[in-house]
Specification:
hydrolase activity; alpha+beta; Ig_E-set; hydrolase; Glycoside hydrolase family 13; Ig-like_fold; globular; 6 helices
């Protein structure tokens, strides 16, 4: 998935992109959010198929944050892994993605002398994978697992379902409803880059169960 922006004047054209292997099925996908009042009956919300991707381009006013999600006509709602941020939706345990244009167009002050004095060697960041590609794992659970040292597909594939259940139980009652039994198997396929096999497996799952 990808979220790209091109600013011109007081507006930014935002391009929402979903790769074919990231879509839950081959059914049409709607892009719904604050910018179209979440109207599912609006045909203009449907994403267009361009080659092996689903694409939708919309112009949004700068200086605001817009919540949104995707809706597959036969598989239901799902989030954008490339969103700028995530916020709780009105429904318990479900987050909405965010397009953040609050700082777009702001001029940044550059102080050359200060930059020279404060330049440091880049710190190598620990490798992290997008755990949200595993069906059943949302932004909150991905963050919880990463904090527990399970931030890659490889580490998740080597973690037992029992240990994952313990982590969810420790995180609070709202997470105990999730069933992580398939997560290690999904993570192993993702770690090996076997996206087609992962999608085939996910088509048989229901929320990761």
């Amino acid at each position: 998935m990808a979220l790209t922006k091109q600013t011109k004047g007081s507006q930014t054209e935002v391009t929402f992109t979903i790769a074919e292997h990231e879509a839950p099925s081959t059914a049409p996908i709607l892009l719904l959010g604050d910018f179209n009042d979440w109207q599912t009956n609006d045909s203009s919300c449907q994403m267009e198929k361009e080659g092996n991707t689903y694409v939708k381009r919309i112009k949004l006013k700068n200086g605001k944050r817009y919540e949104y999600r995707y809706l597959s006509e036969d598989k239901g709602w799902f989030n954008d892994h490339a969103a700028d941020a995530y916020v709780p939706s009105p429904y318990e345990g479900i987050d909405n993605g965010v397009v953040d244009l609050t700082t777009v167009g702001e001029k940044k002050k550059v102080v050359k002398k200060a930059v020279k004095k404060t330049v440091k060697k880049p710190v190598k960041k620990a490798k992290k994978d997008d755990l949200k590609k595993i069906e059943g794992i949302g932004p909150k659970i991905a963050s919880i697992l990463t904090e527990k040292g399970i931030g890659t597909f490889k580490k998740l594939s080597a973690t037992s379902a029992a240990k994952l259940e313990g982590i969810l139980k420790e995180a609070g009652p709202r997470y105990t409803m999730h069933k992580p039994g398939s997560w290690p198997k999904q993570a192993k396929l993702a770690d090996q880059g076997k996206w087609a096999e992962l999608k085939k497996l996910q088509d048989k799952l229901d929320g990761g169960k």
